[in-house]
Design brief:
Blueprint lengths: L9 H15 L1 H8 L5 H27 L3
Length: about 70
């Protein structure tokens, strides 16, 4: 990953770096790896995330189709 510092504006470059890290999920990954996660906990977390995604997609599909 590379961030270009323009006109010695380090604050702006730091903001851009943080935004890139956030978009790529580096912060979330660091938070997850801070402590050991049992495989059963990982499965439960991933399953819950999949359920949330499915519900969100269903809501969007129903909204798009005009069903309320």
């Amino acid at each position: 990953m590379q961030i270009i510092v323009r006109d010695n504006n380090v604050d702006q470059a730091l903001r851009a770096l943080k935004k890139k890290l956030q978009r790529e999920g580096v912060y979330r990954e660091m938070k997850l790896r801070r402590h050991f996660e049992k495989p059963s906990e990982k499965r439960a977390r991933e399953k819950a995330a999949a359920v949330r995604r499915a519900r969100k997609m269903e809501r969007k599909r129903m909204e798009r189709d005009g069903i309320k």
